[in-house]
Amino acid sequence: MSPFNITVNGKRQEIQARPEMPLLYVLRNDMQLNGPKFGCGLAQCGACTIHVGGEAVRSCVTPISSVGNAEIVTLEGLGTPEKPHPVQQAFIDEQAAQCGYCINGMIMHSAAFLKRNTDPDEGQIREALADNLCRCGTHTRIVKAVSRAAKAMR
Q1: Confidence of residue 100 (pLDDT cuts 50, 70, 90)
Q2: What's the pTM value of the predicted model, to 2 decimals?
Q3: Which CATH superfamily is domain 2-78 in?
């Protein structure tokens, strides 16, 4: 075990972990953050997506030792219940969740995507989210939510 000083959702914390420990396990088990989900464990579904240094990353395959001093943001740190992030609010407004398992990844990936593309069309949104898997079939609502969020953020 080694000490790691990481900043998660604006709070600096020291964590004792093996250097190869996936960040997902640190966030869920040590910090009790439930936004990122364990889906596939292979970085293929997107349920574990978080932001590291402003970029969307799959935390199930990101070792804690690779984070360095980069700011980590989870779904819990994106917005608050009183003031949700525009993407979170758009997902609420469009009722873009069914089972909710993929929503963490969809929201986190969408927020990072909208920082780079402030005026995406439907095709760009679909392409950006193509690697985030959803089995419930709320894709139409998810695309509408991202489009709504893009308008709100402009």
Answers
A1: confident
A2: 0.95
A3: Beta-grasp domain (3.10.20.30)
